Amino acid sequence: MFCCKPDKGEDCGCRSVALHILLGVLCVAGLVLVFGFVVMFLWNCLIPEIFSAPRITFWQGVGLLLLARVLTGRVGHGRGGFGPRAMRKGGPAWSEYETRWKDAWETKFGCCSSKSKDDADRKDSE
Questions:
Q1: Per-residue pLDDT, 112
Q2: CA-to-CA distance for 114 and 32, rounded, in angstroms?
Q3: Cα distance between residue 12 and residue 19, in whole Å
């Protein structure tokens, strides 16, 4: 699914990649649940008393959380809004970061990389 087919009983870590993706999705869903309830709780404790506004539901709390993320410019990956942009792609800090993560990927999932596929194809053609 995410990498090459293992030869001769080698396990290239496809299950590990799929597990990491599944855990990431579950963590995001858990964070949405937690922060949605936190926003709902804080709204229902403070706003009706201060401004005589109505109480909100969980989904309205999640909507407020999403609205806050959109309005502050922090939607998606990376840094949004204002501040230093040292990690901008193409800069020296980015190339160091990219090299470090590529090396870590190669050591953990070596047989899943395009290099190992190219090497295997060369060996097959010889």
A1: 59
A2: 35
A3: 13
- What are 29-59's pLDDT values in tens digits? 999 999 999 999 999 999 999 999 999 999 9
CA distances from 26 to 19, 20, 31, 89, 101 (A): 10, 10, 9, 29, 23
Q: Using an 8 Å Cβ cutoff, are 43 and 64 in contact?
A: yes
* Residue keyed to tokens 């009983």: 9
CA-closest candidate to residue 36, choices 51, 56, 54: 56
Q: What are the two backbone dihedrals, phi and then psi, of residue 65, each rounded to the nearest 5 degrees?
A: -65, -45
Q: Which residue has the higher pLDDT, 68 or 8?
A: 68
Q: What is the dihedral of CA 6, 12, 18, 19, to 10 degrees?
A: 130
